[in-house]
Amino acid sequence: AELRKASKRLSCHKRYKIQKKIREHHRKVRKEAKKRGHKKPKKDPGVPSAAPFKEELLREAEQRKQRLEELKQKQKLNRQKEHEKKRKLEAKKNAAKIKEKAEGKESPGKSKGKTNKLLNKNSKKSFCRELMKVLEASDVVLEVLDARDPMGCRCPQLEQAVTCSGGNKKLLLVLNKIDLVPKDNLEKWLNYLKKEFPTVAFKSATMMKDKTMEQLTKRRARVDFSETSQYFGSKCLLKLLQEYGKTQDKAIQVGVVGFPNVGKSSIINSLKGKRACNVGLARGVTKSMQIVHLDKQTKMLDSPSIIADPSNSALALALRSIIDTEGSDSADVLEGVNAIINHCSKQQVMMHYNIPDFRDPEEFLSLLAQKRGMLKKGGVPDIENMAKLVLCDWTGARIKYYSQPPGFQKPPPYLTEQKIAEMQEGFNLNNLEQENSNTVQALKHPSPASSIVFQSAGMTNGTIEENKVIEEGSEWGNMETSKEEEEEEEEEEEFTESDDDEDDMEEDDDDEDDVKEVNEGFTRVGLFSLIKGTTLSLSFSLDKPADEDDAYDFNTDYV
Protein backbone atom coordinates (compact mmCIF):
# COMPACT_ATOMS: atom_id res chain seq x y z
CA ALA A 1 0.00 0.00 0.00
CA GLU A 2 1.33 3.44 -0.97
CA LEU A 3 1.95 5.98 1.81
CA ARG A 4 -0.36 8.98 1.64
CA LYS A 5 0.96 12.50 2.03
CA ALA A 6 0.09 14.22 5.30
CA SER A 7 -2.91 16.49 5.00
CA LYS A 8 -2.30 20.23 5.20
CA ARG A 9 -5.77 20.94 6.55
CA LEU A 10 -5.98 22.49 10.00
CA SER A 11 -8.73 22.52 12.59
CA CYS A 12 -10.71 25.77 12.75
CA HIS A 13 -9.47 26.40 16.30
CA LYS A 14 -5.84 26.27 15.14
CA ARG A 15 -6.47 28.39 12.02
CA TYR A 16 -8.27 31.13 13.97
CA LYS A 17 -5.51 31.08 16.57
CA ILE A 18 -2.88 31.62 13.84
CA GLN A 19 -4.87 34.48 12.31
CA LYS A 20 -5.20 36.08 15.74
CA LYS A 21 -1.45 35.82 16.28
CA ILE A 22 -0.79 37.43 12.86
CA ARG A 23 -3.13 40.32 13.67
CA GLU A 24 -1.38 40.83 17.04
CA HIS A 25 2.01 40.81 15.34
CA HIS A 26 0.91 43.38 12.74
CA ARG A 27 -0.51 45.56 15.50
CA LYS A 28 2.78 45.36 17.41
CA VAL A 29 4.80 46.27 14.30
CA ARG A 30 2.55 49.27 13.57
CA LYS A 31 2.84 50.43 17.17
CA GLU A 32 6.66 50.24 17.10
CA ALA A 33 6.77 52.07 13.76
CA LYS A 34 4.58 54.79 15.24
CA LYS A 35 6.94 55.15 18.23
CA ARG A 36 9.99 55.42 15.97
CA GLY A 37 8.23 58.04 13.91
CA HIS A 38 8.67 55.94 10.77
CA LYS A 39 6.57 57.41 7.99
CA LYS A 40 6.16 56.42 4.39
CA PRO A 41 8.34 58.54 2.13
CA LYS A 42 6.36 61.21 0.31
CA LYS A 43 6.18 60.88 -3.42
CA ASP A 44 8.22 63.36 -5.43
CA PRO A 45 5.71 65.86 -6.90
CA GLY A 46 7.90 66.19 -10.01
CA VAL A 47 8.61 69.37 -11.98
CA PRO A 48 5.67 71.73 -11.73
CA SER A 49 4.07 72.52 -15.08
CA ALA A 50 4.36 76.24 -14.30
CA ALA A 51 8.17 75.98 -13.79
CA PRO A 52 10.22 77.83 -16.42
CA PHE A 53 12.49 75.79 -18.71
CA LYS A 54 10.75 72.53 -17.68
CA GLU A 55 11.47 70.77 -20.97
CA GLU A 56 15.16 71.74 -20.90
CA LEU A 57 15.58 70.43 -17.34
CA LEU A 58 13.97 67.13 -18.24
CA ARG A 59 16.12 66.81 -21.36
CA GLU A 60 19.30 67.52 -19.34
CA ALA A 61 18.31 64.91 -16.76
CA GLU A 62 17.71 62.29 -19.48
CA GLN A 63 21.13 63.03 -20.98
CA ARG A 64 22.82 62.65 -17.57
CA LYS A 65 21.06 59.34 -17.00
CA GLN A 66 22.31 58.06 -20.35
CA ARG A 67 25.88 59.21 -19.60
CA LEU A 68 25.78 57.49 -16.19
CA GLU A 69 24.68 54.22 -17.77
CA GLU A 70 27.45 54.49 -20.39
CA LEU A 71 30.02 55.11 -17.65
CA LYS A 72 28.83 52.09 -15.70
CA GLN A 73 29.16 49.90 -18.76
CA LYS A 74 32.63 51.30 -19.46
CA GLN A 75 33.77 50.59 -15.90
CA LYS A 76 32.32 47.09 -16.12
CA LEU A 77 34.34 46.43 -19.29
CA ASN A 78 37.53 47.74 -17.63
CA ARG A 79 36.99 45.43 -14.66
CA GLN A 80 36.49 42.47 -16.97
CA LYS A 81 39.74 43.38 -18.80
CA GLU A 82 41.64 43.48 -15.47
CA HIS A 83 40.24 40.09 -14.45
CA GLU A 84 41.29 38.63 -17.80
CA LYS A 85 44.83 40.02 -17.39
CA LYS A 86 45.09 38.53 -13.92
CA ARG A 87 43.84 35.16 -15.16
CA LYS A 88 46.39 35.16 -17.97
CA LEU A 89 49.23 36.03 -15.56
CA GLU A 90 48.16 33.29 -13.15
CA ALA A 91 47.95 30.80 -16.01
CA LYS A 92 51.48 31.77 -17.13
CA LYS A 93 52.84 31.39 -13.61
CA ASN A 94 51.18 28.02 -13.15
CA ALA A 95 52.58 26.84 -16.47
CA ALA A 96 56.08 28.04 -15.46
CA LYS A 97 55.81 26.23 -12.11
CA ILE A 98 54.73 23.00 -13.83
CA LYS A 99 57.67 23.33 -16.25
CA GLU A 100 60.11 23.88 -13.38
CA LYS A 101 58.81 20.82 -11.56
CA ALA A 102 59.02 18.73 -14.70
CA GLU A 103 62.53 19.84 -15.64
CA GLY A 104 63.76 19.92 -12.03
CA LYS A 105 65.04 23.48 -12.39
CA GLU A 106 65.51 25.83 -9.46
CA SER A 107 63.57 29.09 -9.13
CA PRO A 108 65.37 32.37 -10.10
CA GLY A 109 68.26 33.30 -7.81
CA LYS A 110 66.84 36.65 -6.76
CA SER A 111 63.57 35.35 -5.32
CA LYS A 112 65.33 32.30 -3.88
CA GLY A 113 67.85 34.51 -2.07
CA LYS A 114 65.06 36.60 -0.59
CA THR A 115 63.07 33.60 0.66
CA ASN A 116 66.22 32.06 2.13
CA LYS A 117 66.94 35.31 3.98
CA LEU A 118 63.43 35.39 5.39
CA LEU A 119 63.53 31.74 6.34
CA ASN A 120 66.89 32.20 8.03
CA LYS A 121 65.67 35.19 10.04
CA ASN A 122 63.12 33.03 11.87
CA SER A 123 65.10 29.79 11.99
CA LYS A 124 67.05 28.33 14.91
CA LYS A 125 70.23 28.38 12.81
CA SER A 126 69.88 32.14 12.39
CA PHE A 127 69.46 32.55 16.16
CA CYS A 128 72.68 30.58 16.76
CA ARG A 129 74.54 32.58 14.09
CA GLU A 130 73.49 35.89 15.67
CA LEU A 131 74.34 34.64 19.17
CA MET A 132 77.85 33.63 18.04
CA LYS A 133 78.29 37.11 16.51
CA VAL A 134 77.48 38.67 19.91
CA LEU A 135 79.85 36.32 21.78
CA GLU A 136 82.72 37.03 19.34
CA ALA A 137 82.22 40.82 19.43
CA SER A 138 81.82 41.11 23.25
CA ASP A 139 84.54 41.97 25.77
CA VAL A 140 82.14 41.24 28.67
CA VAL A 141 79.27 38.75 28.44
CA LEU A 142 76.26 39.16 30.75
CA GLU A 143 74.44 35.84 31.26
CA VAL A 144 70.94 36.77 32.42
CA LEU A 145 69.30 34.37 34.90
CA ASP A 146 65.74 34.26 36.21
CA ALA A 147 66.01 34.57 40.04
CA ARG A 148 63.14 32.06 40.42
CA ASP A 149 65.20 29.28 38.81
CA PRO A 150 68.82 30.49 38.36
CA MET A 151 70.29 27.02 37.86
CA GLY A 152 67.74 26.20 35.14
CA CYS A 153 68.74 29.40 33.28
CA ARG A 154 72.44 28.57 33.17
CA CYS A 155 73.80 27.14 29.93
CA PRO A 156 77.02 25.10 30.39
CA GLN A 157 77.84 25.23 26.65
CA LEU A 158 77.74 29.05 26.65
CA GLU A 159 79.78 29.37 29.85
CA GLN A 160 82.39 26.95 28.49
CA ALA A 161 82.58 28.85 25.17
CA VAL A 162 83.24 32.15 26.98
CA THR A 163 85.65 30.85 29.67
CA CYS A 164 87.65 28.76 27.17
CA SER A 165 87.68 31.38 24.37
CA GLY A 166 91.34 32.21 25.06
CA GLY A 167 90.84 35.98 24.85
CA ASN A 168 90.38 38.35 27.77
CA LYS A 169 86.59 37.84 27.81
CA LYS A 170 84.73 38.14 31.10
CA LEU A 171 81.46 36.48 32.10
CA LEU A 172 79.10 38.14 34.58
CA LEU A 173 75.86 36.64 35.94
CA VAL A 174 72.88 39.00 36.20
CA LEU A 175 70.18 37.68 38.53
CA ASN A 176 67.02 39.32 37.14
CA LYS A 177 63.41 39.36 38.48
CA ILE A 178 64.63 39.45 42.10
CA ASP A 179 61.32 41.02 43.19
CA LEU A 180 59.54 37.68 42.58
CA VAL A 181 61.48 35.61 45.16
CA PRO A 182 61.69 35.75 48.99
CA LYS A 183 64.57 37.75 50.45
CA ASP A 184 66.28 34.80 52.23
CA ASN A 185 66.21 32.68 49.08
CA LEU A 186 67.72 35.52 47.00
CA GLU A 187 70.60 35.98 49.47
CA LYS A 188 71.32 32.21 49.38
CA TRP A 189 71.50 32.28 45.57
CA LEU A 190 73.78 35.35 45.53
CA ASN A 191 76.17 33.63 47.99
CA TYR A 192 76.11 30.45 45.89
CA LEU A 193 76.66 32.07 42.47
CA LYS A 194 79.34 34.61 43.48
CA LYS A 195 81.74 31.72 44.26
CA GLU A 196 81.77 30.88 40.52
CA PHE A 197 81.20 34.19 38.68
CA PRO A 198 80.70 37.85 39.71
CA THR A 199 76.91 38.14 40.21
CA VAL A 200 74.72 41.28 40.06
CA ALA A 201 71.23 41.43 41.62
CA PHE A 202 68.86 43.20 39.23
CA LYS A 203 65.21 44.13 38.86
CA SER A 204 64.52 45.39 35.34
CA ALA A 205 61.69 47.67 34.26
CA THR A 206 59.08 45.63 32.41
CA MET A 207 57.56 48.71 30.75
CA MET A 208 59.71 51.68 29.83
CA LYS A 209 58.09 55.01 28.95
CA ASP A 210 58.56 56.19 25.39
CA LYS A 211 56.70 58.78 23.28
CA THR A 212 53.64 56.56 22.87
CA MET A 213 53.49 55.91 26.63
CA GLU A 214 53.72 59.65 27.35
CA GLN A 215 50.80 60.32 25.02
CA LEU A 216 48.82 57.50 26.66
CA THR A 217 49.41 58.88 30.16
CA LYS A 218 48.30 62.33 29.02
CA ARG A 219 45.05 60.90 27.66
CA ARG A 220 44.41 58.60 30.62
CA ALA A 221 45.50 60.12 33.90
CA ARG A 222 44.67 56.96 35.89
CA VAL A 223 47.28 54.72 34.17
CA ASP A 224 49.98 53.91 36.74
CA PHE A 225 53.39 52.79 35.49
CA SER A 226 55.12 53.17 38.87
CA GLU A 227 55.65 49.44 39.51
CA THR A 228 56.38 48.39 35.94
CA SER A 229 58.81 51.25 35.18
CA GLN A 230 60.88 50.88 38.40
CA TYR A 231 64.30 49.25 38.11
CA PHE A 232 66.98 48.37 40.68
CA GLY A 233 70.64 47.38 40.31
CA SER A 234 71.28 49.43 37.14
CA LYS A 235 73.69 51.84 38.89
CA CYS A 236 75.65 48.93 40.34
CA LEU A 237 75.97 47.18 36.95
CA LEU A 238 76.86 50.40 35.08
CA LYS A 239 79.51 51.27 37.66
CA LEU A 240 80.99 47.76 37.42
CA LEU A 241 81.18 47.94 33.60
CA GLN A 242 82.62 51.48 33.57
CA GLU A 243 85.32 50.56 36.11
CA TYR A 244 86.27 47.52 34.02
CA GLY A 245 86.35 49.73 30.89
CA LYS A 246 88.83 52.09 32.60
CA THR A 247 91.18 49.18 33.39
CA GLN A 248 91.11 48.17 29.69
CA ASP A 249 91.76 51.76 28.42
CA LYS A 250 89.29 51.29 25.55
CA ALA A 251 85.59 51.29 24.74
CA ILE A 252 84.09 47.94 25.71
CA GLN A 253 81.29 45.95 24.11
CA VAL A 254 78.94 44.11 26.48
CA GLY A 255 76.92 41.18 25.13
CA VAL A 256 73.64 40.25 26.86
CA VAL A 257 72.76 36.56 26.46
CA GLY A 258 70.37 34.04 28.01
CA PHE A 259 67.36 31.77 27.50
CA PRO A 260 63.96 33.17 26.40
CA ASN A 261 61.94 35.38 28.78
CA VAL A 262 64.73 36.01 31.30
CA GLY A 263 64.68 39.77 30.54
CA LYS A 264 67.70 40.46 28.30
CA SER A 265 66.17 43.37 26.38
CA SER A 266 64.53 44.74 29.56
CA ILE A 267 67.94 44.96 31.25
CA ILE A 268 69.34 47.01 28.32
CA ASN A 269 66.26 49.30 28.45
CA SER A 270 66.75 49.76 32.22
CA LEU A 271 70.45 50.62 31.76
CA LYS A 272 69.63 53.04 28.95
CA GLY A 273 66.73 54.58 30.92
CA LYS A 274 64.34 54.42 27.98
CA ARG A 275 62.90 51.91 25.53
CA ALA A 276 65.77 51.06 23.18
CA CYS A 277 64.92 47.38 22.45
CA ASN A 278 61.60 45.71 21.73
CA VAL A 279 60.27 43.58 24.60
CA GLY A 280 57.24 41.30 24.86
CA LEU A 281 55.64 38.34 26.62
CA ALA A 282 56.11 36.18 23.52
CA ARG A 283 59.33 34.18 23.35
CA GLY A 284 61.90 35.03 20.71
CA VAL A 285 61.03 38.74 20.19
CA THR A 286 64.70 39.61 19.48
CA LYS A 287 65.77 37.84 16.27
CA SER A 288 69.09 39.51 15.49
CA MET A 289 71.97 41.37 17.14
CA GLN A 290 71.04 44.92 18.21
CA ILE A 291 73.58 47.57 19.25
CA VAL A 292 72.65 50.13 21.95
CA HIS A 293 75.13 52.86 23.00
CA LEU A 294 75.04 53.58 26.74
CA ASP A 295 77.92 56.10 26.65
CA LYS A 296 81.16 56.72 24.76
CA GLN A 297 82.92 53.87 26.57
CA THR A 298 80.14 51.24 26.75
CA LYS A 299 78.19 49.59 23.95
CA MET A 300 75.47 46.99 24.69
CA LEU A 301 74.79 44.10 22.28
CA ASP A 302 71.34 42.49 22.51
CA SER A 303 71.16 38.91 21.26
CA PRO A 304 68.50 36.34 20.35
CA SER A 305 67.68 33.63 22.89
CA ILE A 306 69.81 30.52 23.40
CA ILE A 307 68.22 27.49 21.72
CA ALA A 308 67.43 24.77 24.29
CA ASP A 309 68.73 21.31 23.26
CA PRO A 310 65.95 18.75 22.54
CA SER A 311 67.74 16.28 24.87
CA ASN A 312 66.71 18.36 27.94
CA SER A 313 63.94 17.26 30.32
CA ALA A 314 60.29 18.16 29.60
CA LEU A 315 60.42 20.81 32.36
CA ALA A 316 63.49 22.54 30.92
CA LEU A 317 61.97 22.51 27.40
CA ALA A 318 58.67 23.92 28.72
CA LEU A 319 60.32 26.87 30.51
CA ARG A 320 63.40 27.52 28.36
CA SER A 321 62.62 26.64 24.73
CA ILE A 322 61.23 29.06 22.14
CA ILE A 323 57.63 27.79 22.01
CA ASP A 324 55.08 29.78 20.02
CA THR A 325 52.06 29.12 22.29
CA GLU A 326 49.58 30.17 19.60
CA GLY A 327 51.01 28.07 16.78
CA SER A 328 52.61 25.19 18.72
CA ASP A 329 51.13 21.73 19.12
CA SER A 330 48.74 21.47 22.10
CA ALA A 331 50.35 18.13 23.11
CA ASP A 332 53.72 19.88 23.71
CA VAL A 333 52.08 22.62 25.78
CA LEU A 334 50.12 20.08 27.86
CA GLU A 335 53.30 18.06 28.45
CA GLY A 336 55.09 21.26 29.58
CA VAL A 337 52.31 22.19 32.04
CA ASN A 338 52.27 18.59 33.29
CA ALA A 339 56.05 18.78 34.04
CA ILE A 340 55.68 22.17 35.81
CA ILE A 341 52.81 21.01 38.07
CA ASN A 342 54.67 17.78 38.95
CA HIS A 343 57.72 19.81 40.11
CA CYS A 344 55.69 22.00 42.49
CA SER A 345 53.97 21.59 45.84
CA LYS A 346 50.36 20.55 45.13
CA GLN A 347 48.97 22.37 48.19
CA GLN A 348 50.67 25.65 47.22
CA VAL A 349 49.38 25.39 43.62
CA MET A 350 45.83 24.81 44.96
CA MET A 351 46.14 27.84 47.26
CA HIS A 352 47.63 30.08 44.55
CA TYR A 353 44.96 29.27 41.95
CA ASN A 354 42.21 28.90 44.60
CA ILE A 355 40.95 25.56 43.27
CA PRO A 356 39.96 22.27 45.00
CA ASP A 357 42.06 19.09 45.13
CA PHE A 358 42.95 17.50 41.77
CA ARG A 359 44.31 14.08 40.83
CA ASP A 360 46.38 14.97 37.75
CA PRO A 361 47.41 18.08 35.72
CA GLU A 362 44.55 17.53 33.25
CA GLU A 363 42.00 17.77 36.06
CA PHE A 364 43.85 20.85 37.37
CA LEU A 365 43.48 22.53 33.94
CA SER A 366 39.78 21.61 33.65
CA LEU A 367 39.05 23.00 37.16
CA LEU A 368 40.95 26.21 36.37
CA ALA A 369 39.17 26.57 33.00
CA GLN A 370 35.77 26.21 34.73
CA LYS A 371 36.76 28.76 37.37
CA ARG A 372 37.90 31.33 34.79
CA GLY A 373 35.00 30.65 32.40
CA MET A 374 37.14 29.26 29.57
CA LEU A 375 34.56 26.87 28.14
CA LYS A 376 33.94 25.42 24.71
CA LYS A 377 30.55 24.75 23.14
CA GLY A 378 28.36 22.71 25.47
CA GLY A 379 30.17 23.90 28.62
CA VAL A 380 33.24 21.68 28.04
CA PRO A 381 36.42 23.13 29.68
CA ASP A 382 38.91 24.47 27.10
CA ILE A 383 41.99 22.61 28.41
CA GLU A 384 44.30 23.46 25.43
CA ASN A 385 43.93 27.24 25.71
CA MET A 386 44.06 27.07 29.50
CA ALA A 387 47.38 25.17 29.27
CA LYS A 388 48.79 27.91 27.02
CA LEU A 389 47.75 30.60 29.52
CA VAL A 390 49.31 28.72 32.47
CA LEU A 391 52.57 28.26 30.52
CA CYS A 392 52.65 32.01 29.70
CA ASP A 393 52.09 32.83 33.41
CA TRP A 394 55.04 30.65 34.48
CA THR A 395 57.47 31.97 31.86
CA GLY A 396 56.35 35.59 32.38
CA ALA A 397 56.51 37.55 35.64
CA ARG A 398 53.07 36.69 37.02
CA ILE A 399 53.77 33.72 39.30
CA LYS A 400 56.04 34.04 42.32
CA TYR A 401 57.94 30.79 42.76
CA TYR A 402 61.45 29.97 43.96
CA SER A 403 63.92 27.10 43.93
CA GLN A 404 66.57 26.22 46.50
CA PRO A 405 70.31 26.29 45.62
CA PRO A 406 72.17 22.93 45.69
CA GLY A 407 73.25 21.69 49.14
CA PHE A 408 76.98 21.68 48.32
CA GLN A 409 79.07 23.72 45.86
CA LYS A 410 80.29 21.62 42.95
CA PRO A 411 81.57 23.78 40.06
CA PRO A 412 81.20 22.33 36.53
CA PRO A 413 84.34 20.61 35.08
CA TYR A 414 85.21 23.54 32.74
CA LEU A 415 85.32 25.95 35.72
CA THR A 416 88.65 25.43 37.48
CA GLU A 417 89.96 27.66 40.29
CA GLN A 418 92.25 29.38 37.78
CA LYS A 419 89.29 30.18 35.48
CA ILE A 420 87.24 31.50 38.43
CA ALA A 421 90.14 33.81 39.39
CA GLU A 422 90.44 35.00 35.74
CA MET A 423 86.71 35.83 35.56
CA GLN A 424 86.84 37.81 38.84
CA GLU A 425 89.95 39.77 37.85
CA GLY A 426 89.34 43.45 37.05
CA PHE A 427 86.15 43.75 39.15
CA ASN A 428 85.78 45.28 42.61
CA LEU A 429 83.98 42.35 44.29
CA ASN A 430 83.68 43.96 47.77
CA ASN A 431 81.97 47.00 46.30
CA LEU A 432 79.72 44.70 44.20
CA GLU A 433 78.66 42.74 47.31
CA GLN A 434 77.79 45.98 49.12
CA GLU A 435 75.76 47.28 46.18
CA ASN A 436 73.89 43.95 45.91
CA SER A 437 72.93 44.05 49.59
CA ASN A 438 71.65 47.64 49.13
CA THR A 439 69.55 46.54 46.14
CA VAL A 440 68.11 43.58 48.10
CA GLN A 441 67.22 45.86 51.04
CA ALA A 442 65.58 48.49 48.82
CA LEU A 443 63.16 46.02 47.19
CA LYS A 444 59.88 44.68 48.51
CA HIS A 445 60.00 40.85 48.41
CA PRO A 446 57.14 38.35 48.61
CA SER A 447 56.85 36.15 51.70
CA PRO A 448 57.69 32.42 51.38
CA ALA A 449 54.06 31.60 52.30
CA SER A 450 52.73 33.46 49.23
CA SER A 451 55.29 31.86 46.87
CA ILE A 452 55.41 28.37 45.36
CA VAL A 453 58.36 26.09 46.12
CA PHE A 454 59.76 24.75 42.84
CA GLN A 455 62.16 21.85 42.19
CA SER A 456 64.74 22.91 39.60
CA ALA A 457 65.84 20.45 36.91
CA GLY A 458 69.44 21.74 37.01
CA MET A 459 71.40 23.40 34.22
CA THR A 460 69.76 23.52 30.79
CA ASN A 461 71.82 22.35 27.82
CA GLY A 462 71.80 24.80 24.93
CA THR A 463 72.86 24.74 21.28
CA ILE A 464 75.08 27.68 20.36
CA GLU A 465 76.81 26.25 17.25
CA GLU A 466 74.93 26.59 13.98
CA ASN A 467 75.97 23.19 12.58
CA LYS A 468 74.56 21.33 15.62
CA VAL A 469 71.04 22.76 15.28
CA ILE A 470 68.27 20.33 14.35
CA GLU A 471 65.76 22.42 12.41
CA GLU A 472 62.09 21.81 13.05
CA GLY A 473 59.90 23.39 10.35
CA SER A 474 58.68 26.37 12.28
CA GLU A 475 55.18 27.17 11.11
CA TRP A 476 55.29 30.80 12.24
CA GLY A 477 58.45 31.41 10.20
CA ASN A 478 57.03 29.79 7.09
CA MET A 479 53.81 31.76 7.46
CA GLU A 480 55.72 35.05 7.44
CA THR A 481 57.79 34.05 4.42
CA SER A 482 54.77 32.89 2.44
CA LYS A 483 53.01 36.22 3.14
CA GLU A 484 56.02 38.26 2.03
CA GLU A 485 56.43 36.07 -1.09
CA GLU A 486 52.83 36.82 -2.03
CA GLU A 487 53.42 40.55 -1.59
CA GLU A 488 56.53 40.36 -3.79
CA GLU A 489 54.60 38.50 -6.49
CA GLU A 490 51.90 41.19 -6.42
CA GLU A 491 54.57 43.89 -6.81
CA GLU A 492 56.06 42.03 -9.79
CA GLU A 493 52.61 41.84 -11.38
CA GLU A 494 52.19 45.60 -10.97
CA PHE A 495 55.55 46.28 -12.65
CA THR A 496 54.83 43.93 -15.57
CA GLU A 497 51.50 45.62 -16.24
CA SER A 498 52.81 49.18 -15.94
CA ASP A 499 52.07 50.26 -19.56
CA ASP A 500 48.52 48.94 -19.61
CA ASP A 501 47.84 50.33 -16.14
CA GLU A 502 48.80 53.86 -17.17
CA ASP A 503 46.16 53.84 -19.91
CA ASP A 504 43.59 52.35 -17.52
CA MET A 505 44.43 54.99 -14.90
CA GLU A 506 43.85 57.78 -17.44
CA GLU A 507 40.51 56.25 -18.41
CA ASP A 508 39.53 55.89 -14.74
CA ASP A 509 40.37 59.57 -14.06
CA ASP A 510 38.14 60.64 -16.96
CA ASP A 511 35.39 58.37 -15.68
CA GLU A 512 35.63 59.83 -12.19
CA ASP A 513 35.34 63.41 -13.55
CA ASP A 514 32.24 62.42 -15.54
CA VAL A 515 30.69 60.78 -12.49
CA LYS A 516 31.29 63.96 -10.46
CA GLU A 517 29.57 66.04 -13.15
CA VAL A 518 26.57 63.71 -13.28
CA ASN A 519 26.24 63.64 -9.50
CA GLU A 520 26.37 67.45 -9.35
CA GLY A 521 23.60 67.57 -11.96
CA PHE A 522 21.44 65.24 -9.92
CA THR A 523 21.84 67.32 -6.77
CA ARG A 524 20.60 70.39 -8.66
CA VAL A 525 17.47 68.68 -9.99
CA GLY A 526 16.97 66.39 -6.95
CA LEU A 527 13.68 67.94 -5.86
CA PHE A 528 11.90 67.11 -9.08
CA SER A 529 10.78 63.89 -10.65
CA LEU A 530 14.16 63.32 -12.29
CA ILE A 531 15.11 60.77 -9.64
CA LYS A 532 11.75 59.05 -9.46
CA GLY A 533 13.32 55.66 -9.96
CA THR A 534 15.77 56.12 -7.09
CA THR A 535 13.13 57.36 -4.63
CA LEU A 536 10.95 54.39 -5.46
CA SER A 537 13.83 51.99 -4.92
CA LEU A 538 14.62 53.71 -1.62
CA SER A 539 11.07 53.42 -0.35
CA PHE A 540 11.06 49.77 -1.42
CA SER A 541 14.27 49.05 0.50
CA LEU A 542 12.90 50.78 3.61
CA ASP A 543 9.64 48.87 3.50
CA LYS A 544 11.32 45.53 2.79
CA PRO A 545 12.40 44.65 6.34
CA ALA A 546 8.92 45.40 7.62
CA ASP A 547 7.53 42.89 5.09
CA GLU A 548 10.05 40.33 6.23
CA ASP A 549 9.01 40.92 9.86
CA ASP A 550 5.36 40.44 8.92
CA ALA A 551 6.09 36.99 7.50
CA TYR A 552 4.81 34.31 9.90
CA ASP A 553 6.38 30.87 10.07
CA PHE A 554 3.56 28.33 10.43
CA ASN A 555 5.93 25.46 11.19
CA THR A 556 7.45 26.92 14.38
CA ASP A 557 4.73 27.03 17.04
CA TYR A 558 1.75 25.07 15.84
CA VAL A 559 2.90 21.97 13.99
TrEMBL record:
Ranges in a coiled coil: none
GO CC field: nucleolus
CDD domains, per database record: Nucleostemin_like
Cell compartments where the protein resides: Nucleus, Nucleolus
Keyword terms: Coiled coil, GTP-binding, Nucleotide-binding, Nucleus
Biased composition (Acidic residues): 483-515
Segments of skewed composition (Basic and acidic residues): 53-83, 91-109
Primary site of residence: nucleus
Signal peptide feature range: none
A GO MF label: GTP binding
PROSITE patterns: G_CP
Name recorded for this polypeptide: Guanine nucleotide-binding protein-like 3
